[in-house]
């Protein structure tokens, strides 16, 4: 151990005759440091966006939705039965249909939901915030801020909606048109929902659609949707379908996960390039110190000690780069989290602040991957150092 330690610190010293060796070691150190920092920051940003999008989709899509199959009934009796069987869940039955909003010469397509607002406010934080100080009557409507701004609607203004169901009029059929009173507007943080979603009382929507009773489905709030959806599926059987919010947006989140993995692999190449610098610098030391290595082996030093000293040198260069990279990454994340350096369009991303969230799993995987590359880069030069031919080297020297 004393010989390995002596050689380690000896080869770390600046060599005036071969300054390029120390420059290569410095570049390897900086490569590992910067590469690890960039990788950790990129993973934190990707996780931040992933969770931010999940949060937004979760709010407007609901954790679980029950839909009927084969014309199975969804009525107040069915909802009451679900409440008895699953008292820890919150239920909000709904009607929905596509409509066209009309204002002067402007038209916008959208989706209108007929709900019981008292039940809906328990599971939808966006609607709850919009109706803090508002009491709704039968033909009042809640719309998104984007739609209200485009149509220049204020509180108590009229909004005309064109429905898909047709009414006989003379010798033709005309779509049903109904005017609602705008009483509140919500802001979900995503422009699509704020432009397309509208909420009215379920009884009022039934009258417009000519439906006597029943609902199109039931929205459910659950603290543990992944477990509760299995219980619901087992209870409902084949007549109803229980769909989780992650299933409704599966392609989108799969694309985010694929992008995250691809980014991890690409940025890991930075550390791989730094590993090549470690190999080149150690090989240059081996070639430059061949006579010293041969002499040490001739005087009784074991090949294991020589291998250990060069392996420790590579690990020290890469390990110190990893430590500095982790420190630099956390300083960067702290700086980005506390100072609004990067400003995002809130209507696109749902937030104006750069979301950051470095998970423990990504942190560990990054460190393990970097450590594996550094160890592999240190092993080959250390092995080559033990293959020095003692007799040929000393004879030539």
TrEMBL record:
<keyword id="KW-0812">Transmembrane</keyword>
<feature type="domain" description="ABC3 transporter permease C-terminal">
    <location>
        <begin position="265"/>
        <end position="389"/>
    </location>
</feature>
<protein>
    <submittedName>
        <fullName>ABC transporter permease</fullName>
    </submittedName>
</protein>
<feature type="transmembrane region" description="Helical">
    <location>
        <begin position="262"/>
        <end position="288"/>
    </location>
</feature>
<feature type="transmembrane region" description="Helical">
    <location>
        <begin position="309"/>
        <end position="336"/>
    </location>
</feature>
<feature type="transmembrane region" description="Helical">
    <location>
        <begin position="356"/>
        <end position="376"/>
    </location>
</feature>
<dbReference type="InterPro" id="IPR051447">
    <property type="entry name" value="Lipoprotein-release_system"/>
</dbReference>
<dbReference type="GO" id="GO:0044874">
    <property type="term" value="P:lipoprotein localization to outer membrane"/>
</dbReference>
<keyword id="KW-0472">Membrane</keyword>
<dbReference type="Pfam" id="PF02687">
    <property type="entry name" value="FtsX"/>
</dbReference>
<comment type="similarity">
    <text>Belongs to the ABC-4 integral membrane protein family. LolC/E subfamily.</text>
</comment>
<feature type="transmembrane region" description="Helical">
    <location>
        <begin position="20"/>
        <end position="46"/>
    </location>
</feature>
<keyword id="KW-1133">Transmembrane helix</keyword>
<keyword id="KW-1003">Cell membrane</keyword>
<dbReference type="InterPro" id="IPR003838">
    <property type="entry name" value="ABC3_permease_C"/>
</dbReference>
<dbReference type="GO" id="GO:0098797">
    <property type="term" value="C:plasma membrane protein complex"/>
</dbReference>
């Amino acid at each position: 151990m004393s010989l390995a330690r002596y050689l380690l610190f000896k080869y770390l010293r600046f060599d005036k005759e071969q300054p390029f060796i120390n420059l290569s070691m410095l570049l390897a150190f900086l490569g590992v440091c910067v590469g690890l920092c960039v990788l950790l920051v990129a993973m934190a940003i990707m996780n931040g966006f992933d969770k931010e999008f999940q949060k937004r989709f979760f709010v407007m899509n609901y954790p679980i939705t029950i839909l009927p199959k084969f014309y199975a009934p969804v009525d107040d009796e069915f909802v009451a039965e679900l409440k008895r069987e699953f008292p820890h869940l919150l239920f909000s039955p709904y009607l929905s249909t596509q409509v066209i909003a009309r204002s002067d010469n402007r038209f916008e397509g959208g989706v209108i939901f007929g709900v019981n607002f008292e039940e809906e406010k328990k599971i939808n934080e966006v609607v709850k915030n919009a109706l803090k100080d508002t009491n709704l009557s039968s033909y009042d409507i809640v719309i998104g801020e984007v739609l209200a701004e485009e149509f220049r609607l204020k509180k108590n203004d009229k909004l005309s909606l064109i429905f898909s169901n047709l009414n006989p009029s003379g010798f033709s059929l005309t779509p049903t048109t109904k005017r609602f009173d705008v009483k509140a507007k919500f802001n979900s943080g995503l422009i699509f929902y704020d432009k397309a979603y509208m909420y009215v009382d379920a009884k009022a929507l039934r009258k417009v659609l000519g439906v006597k009773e029943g609902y199109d489905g039931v929205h459910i709030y659950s603290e543990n949707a992944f477990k509760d959806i299995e219980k619901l599926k087992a209870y409902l059987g084949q007549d109803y379908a229980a769909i989780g919010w992650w299933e409704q947006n599966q392609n989108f989140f799969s694309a985010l996960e694929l992008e995250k993995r691809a980014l991890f692999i690409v940025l890991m190449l930075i550390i791989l390039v730094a590993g090549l610098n470690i190999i080149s610098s150690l090989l240059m030391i081996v070639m430059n110190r061949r006579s010293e290595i041969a002499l040490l082996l001739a005087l009784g030093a074991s090949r294991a000690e020589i291998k250990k000293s060069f392996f420790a040198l590579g690990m020290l260069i890469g390990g110190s780069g990893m430590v500095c990279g982790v420190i630099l990454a956390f300083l960067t994340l702290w700086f980005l989290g506390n100072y609004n350096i990067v400003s995002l369009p809130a209507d696109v991303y749902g937030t104006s602040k750069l979301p950051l969230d470095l998970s423990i799993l990504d942190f560990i995987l990054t460190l393990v991957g970097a450590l594996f590359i550094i160890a592999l880069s240190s092993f080959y030069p250390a092995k080559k150092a033990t293959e020095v031919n003692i007799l040929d080297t000393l004879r030539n020297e």
